[in-house]
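G., before I forget:
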Amino acid sequence: MRTTLCREEMMDCLLEVFRRDGVEGASVVDLMRAVGLQKGSLYHHFPRGKTEIAEAVLEHVERLFEAMVFSPLREAATAVDGVAAMCHALEVYFAQGRKVCLPALIGLGPTRDQFGTAIEGFFQRWIKALADAFIKAGMPADAAMLMAEQTVVDIQGAIVVARALGQSEPFLRAMKRANQRVALP
Amino acid sequence: MRTTLCREEMMDCLLEVFRRDGVEGASVVDLMRAVGLQKGSLYHHFPRGKTEIAEAVLEHVERLFEAMVFSPLREAATAVDGVAAMCHALEVYFAQGRKVCLPALIGLGPTRDQFGTAIEGFFQRWIKALADAFIKAGMPADAAMLMAEQTVVDIQGAIVVARALGQSEPFLRAMKRANQRVALP
DNA sequence: GTCTATAAAGCGATAGAC
DNA sequence: GTCTATCGCTTTATAGAC
């Protein structure tokens, strides 16, 4: 059995800690245990400490969404297919609303400004990818932007409510609405 | 000038600290400064410390929403009036999406389970108050519950996206949708 | 009911051996 | 590149004077 993790595996472990505990709630000891390294070794990989780890994790999330959501939306034959692929991936990634969206959690918290560029970019790119899919399906650009924003808003709100109520149904209903929105005229 | 604050004024100050910094991010020193008391005095009011303060603040939020949202929804002549009153109050309370919803922030974070009952109750009562308004307007009970949930989801998601993008527009558009949703057949 | 002083633990971060 | 050991600071919480 291998005892050391490659970079991508490390980022996955670190991401899970931040998603569970938040950036303030997660300690360096928590992060260090998650990747199976001692404190000094973790600081070797990330000399600026927790801030640098959080920055790297946010870039990792961006890459995950590029592969999981943005790219499928761009390359699907129809907008219906693209949204369906997105929803399937999100249902797994957000564990039906039990796991949170790290950029959203950071955006609501006190460290928002510190990671402002990454947070803004994440949501802008997500909304843009959706809008482009809607435009490709024949929708006017301004209407597409509004519907794209509403879709992301709906999904983020569904995670908040699903987590708060301890139920998956609000999240699953948002997935259904996302598919219906693009299927109608 | 008065130097000591009454209980309600104290709760307002403490709430603002938690809304800005979160429960993990806020230190006892932050809370103590916000109410203008020294450490020992704050522990006199809340012997169990930060946990007890957070519990009391969540009860305070519940009371604020009862007066600001739930009661207007119940007592308005029409559902349209009730939702309009709610949206007007929310636009002030959430500062057009610049300030967060504490129960939502806690619900996404690591202390969710610790305050589970308060968080669940807050969202259940909000959704219930909206559903009752929709039922009073002639909507079937099951459709009313779904529309109520979708309205709260939309508002919470709008706060997430507005904060993340540093714009008020996504929040204001959600307010518009809330009013339109109840105005249509 | 407010204050000062202090305890005890955990935190992020660094130094240096291997 | 990983480890152990430790520094200095902040944290929550308590004790006791006024």
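Chain A is about 75% helix and 0% strand. The radius of gyration of chain A is 18 Å.

More on Monday.
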